[in-house]
């Protein structure tokens, strides 16, 4: 050890002793004055603050959801300091438009393999190569199948499902402690009144999911209407932060007169980085069960379905998990409920 190293070691030792002695004196003085003595615990040993984790029900057990861009999501919707400016920017359509432009470039294709590995994306029935991330995000599948019994309602899309019966159109539940009026969502009070006491299905699509929506029954498209709005995230992290979120976001309303479930109101809600909802039909078209209805471009999104009273009974297990506060992970075509035997609302095809 050189003379310089020896002097440096002595200096560090002296500083450490003085700091320790100073802390002891301050603690003793606080104790004499009756103040509680401060616990000198290193920062890295303190217990981390509990976070709002998202758990979903799948195949008889609960799984923690792997949230895409989790750090940014928590900064925007849980941090009171950093949230305001970021929330203002992300809800703007221009930001989603710029992100969409990037996703359509060939450069974006480089992140597809990492995205599949990181979030364990199910690529069953899909192609292996894509020109860009937008093409991958709105990928098609060749293995979509619906229940053989047409009275069973298969999920129109893949995602996290929940169900409600006996709905109150003035207090529709979006999440625990978050409500919205159905008339505002549909932009039509008369139409909303027709679904009083009926059932609601909600399927939340994450960026990991298959983002194409299929018709759950054959029928005729009576109405197709677009409603402008912002582009907030539809994640549970955002629902408690943004009031009446579904009503404030960009969305599309379709009234489908079906053969087995009466007139069903389908609302496709856009979200952060989802500036476009592309429909594969027009108003007045006849559609087939299992046929492709629409698809979202990059981001998370949401599908809401409203049934008139007596037209649809959700699966009991799905209802039970919703009552417990959990969403159920479902695949496209998976049975979510059934039509009551011998019943059909006016407006159906049969």
Set down the secondary structure blueprint.
Elements: H1 3-32, E1 55-58, E2 61-64, H2 70-77, H3 83-90, H4 93-103, H5 112-119, H6 133-137, E3 152-154, E4 159-165, E5 172-175, E6 178-180, H7 182-186, H8 189-193, E7 199-205, E8 212-214, E9 219-227, H9 236-239, H10 245-248, E10 251-258, E11 263-269, E12 277-279, E13 286-287, E14 292-296, E15 301-307, E16 313-314, H11 316-324, E17 327-330, E18 335-338
Parallel strand pairs: 1-17
Antiparallel strand pairs: 1-2, 3-18, 4-7, 4-17, 5-6, 7-15, 8-14, 9-10, 9-13, 10-11, 11-15, 12-14, 16-18
Order of helices and strands: HEEHHHHHEEEEHHEEEHHEEEEEEEHEE
Largest sheet: 10 strands, mixed
* Separation, N- and C-terminal Cα atoms: 95 Å
Flag low-confidence runs.
Answer: 40-50, 344-350
**Overall 3D shape:** globular
Order of strands, widest sheet: 2-1-17-4-7-15-11-10-9-13
The portion of residues assigned to helices is: 25-40%
Number of domains: 1
Provide a short characterization of the protein structure.
28% of the residues lie in helices and 25% in strands. With 350 residues, the chain is α+β, with helices and mostly antiparallel strands.
């Amino acid at each position: 050890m050189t003379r310089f190293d020896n002097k440096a070691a002595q200096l560090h030792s002296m500083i450490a002793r003085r700091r320790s002695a100073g802390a002891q004196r301050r603690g003793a003085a606080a104790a004499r004055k009756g103040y509680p003595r401060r616990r000198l615990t290193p920062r890295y040993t303190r217990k981390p603050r509990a976070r709002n984790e998202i758990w979903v029900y799948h195949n008889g057990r609960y799984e923690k959801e792997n949230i895409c861009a989790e750090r940014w999501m928590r900064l925007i919707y849980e941090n009171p300091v950093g949230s305001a400016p970021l929330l203002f920017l992300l809800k703007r359509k221009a930001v989603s438009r710029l992100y969409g432009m990037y996703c359509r470039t060939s450069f974006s294709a480089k992140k597809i393999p990492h995205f599949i590995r990181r979030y364990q994306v199910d690529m069953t029935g899909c192609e292996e190569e894509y020109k860009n991330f937008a093409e991958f995000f709105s990928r098609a599948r060749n293995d979509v199948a619906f229940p053989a019994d047409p009275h069973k309602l298969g999920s129109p899309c893949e995602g996290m499902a929940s169900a409600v019966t006996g709905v109150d159109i003035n207090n529709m539940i979006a999440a625990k402690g978050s409500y919205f009026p159905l008339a505002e969502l549909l932009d039509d009070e008369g139409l909303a009144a027709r679904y009083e006491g009926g059932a609601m299905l909600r399927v939340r699509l994450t960026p990991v999911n298959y983002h194409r929506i299929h018709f759950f029954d054959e029928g005729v498209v009576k109405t197709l209407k677009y409603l402008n709005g912002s582009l907030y995230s539809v994640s549970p992290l955002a629902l408690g932060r943004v009031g009446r979120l579904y009503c404030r976001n960009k969305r599309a309303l379709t009234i489908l007169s079906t053969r087995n479930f009466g007139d069903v109101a389908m609302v496709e809600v856009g979200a952060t980085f989802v500036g476009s909802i592309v429909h594969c039909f027009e108003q007045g078209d006849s559609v087939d069960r299992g046929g492709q209805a629409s698809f979202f471009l990059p981001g998370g999104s949401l599908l809401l379905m409203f049934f008139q009273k007596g037209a649809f009974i959700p699966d009991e297990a799905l209802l039970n998990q919703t009552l417990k506060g959990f969403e159920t992970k479902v695949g496209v075509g998976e049975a979510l409920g059934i039509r009551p035997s011998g019943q059909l609302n006016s407006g159906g095809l049969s």
